[in-house]
Amino acid sequence: MRRYLRIVVLCLACGFCSLLYAFSQLAVSLEEGAGGGGGKPQAAAASWLAGGGRGGARGVGSAGPAAHPGRSDRYSLKVQPAQRMHLAVVACGERLEETITMLKSAIIFSIRPLQFHIFAEDQLHDSFKGILESWSFLQTFNYSLYPITFPSENAAEWKKLFKPCASQRLFLPLILKEVDSLLYVDTDILFLRPVDDIWSLLKKFNSTQIAAMAPEHEEPRIGWYNRFARHPYYGKTGVNSGVMLMNMTRMRRKYFKNDMTAVRLRWGDILMPLLKKYKLNITWGDQDLLNIIFFHNPESLFVFPCQWNYRPDHCIYGSNCQEAEEEGIFILHGNRGVYHDDKQPAFRAIYEALRNY
Predict the structure, then answer these.
(1) What predicted TM-score, i.e. pTM, was given to this entire model?
(2) What is the pLDDT of residues 227-271, one digit of tens each?
């Protein structure tokens, strides 16, 4: 009797296991069918890989998706499109090669798609178009070309302020009215890590901050502003505007304190009065005007470390950028023409490597 009972129990156990196996196979077949043709479920690509729209400025070009595959959760039907990062540069004279090398460095290292806003003299537009269109196979960026534009009543005065066209950056919030946030860089900038990293600093702005820059100097003993400036400047050593991250929506809305009137002025109203008051006292043009503005409105500036704007000044008299020593250089700024002479071989080597890539 016991023997028969054991046989019955064993048969029931085998039947139960067989039933479980059958259900598991059914589940697998259903999952494979939902995946589209009996294979592993295919991951959805990020929707921005389908290509971006073209800009609306004169001489507009585009390149859409990219070599960066989109990630997805296997349970997701669609991945949200990645927000484009906006990068602006102003190029005049012989700055075509530097600008192209800078744009190349941004594309090489960045993860999210980029929107370039290129302000250039008319004779440079065809060269920019030819080069950027030849990169269209990358499909990781869009670009818009703009003419150099200043307020008509004072255009000549703005254009000759410091270097040709340099003061164009002051008017970007007024020209790019549809752009919320923007990273402005000089032509002699090289990105050594993704633009995404400095773009993420926008999230660290507090409620009063509208822009971010690095100090002009780390070491006051070699600082220019604290030794020679004849106008107000931000902090102990001033700030350098070669890399400037902006929340332009806030810039357009803010009313700025100033030393010209008790009434606070908006961005579009404060620039010309400042120039008229200080034009005989400023040396570095638009950068000096920015220093004056943030001297009176220090709560509006987010200061990031020197590794985000590393210049020859940080090593020409000995190393004085501690953050770069500890974590490396994030953005290289080759001012003083060091990409094109033998005074700073390391700067030139990095520039030539990216230029030739």
Answers:
(1) 0.78
(2) 999 999 999 999 999 999 999 999 999 999 999 999 999 999 999
Write the pLDDT tens digit of every residue in 300-318: 999 999 999 999 999 988 8
Distances (CA, A) of 351 to 46, 50, 118: 32, 32, 20
What are the contacts of 151-156 at 24+ separation with CB within 8 A? 151/272, 154/272, 154/275
Q: Considering Cα of 244, then 141, then 108, then 131, what sign does the dihedral take?
A: negative
Query: Nearest Cα to 225, choosing from 168, 172, 287?
Result: 287
Q: How far is CA 158 from CA 45, 89, 154, in A?
A: 46, 17, 6
Cα–Cα dist 251/174, whole Å: 9
Alpha carbon distance 329, 340 (integer Å): 20
Q: What's the rounded Cα separation, in Å, for the pair 9 and 2?
A: 11
Other Cβ atoms closer than 10 A to 129? 16
| DSSP symbol at 43 | P
Are 224 and 291 within 8 A, CB to CB?
no
Angle, vertex CA 315, rays to CA 312 and CA 318, nearest 5: 150
Residues 235/218, Cβ–Cβ less than 8 Å = no
Pull the structure tokens for residue 65. Answer: 């998706």
8 A C-beta contact, residue 48 and residue 81: yes
**Residue 175: CB atoms within 10 Å:** 15
Query: In 3-state terms, what secondary structure has residue 72?
Result: coil
CB neighbour class for 30 (10 Å; exposed up to 12, middle 13-18, buried from 19): exposed
Q: Give the C-alpha separation, 186 to 95, whole Å.
A: 10
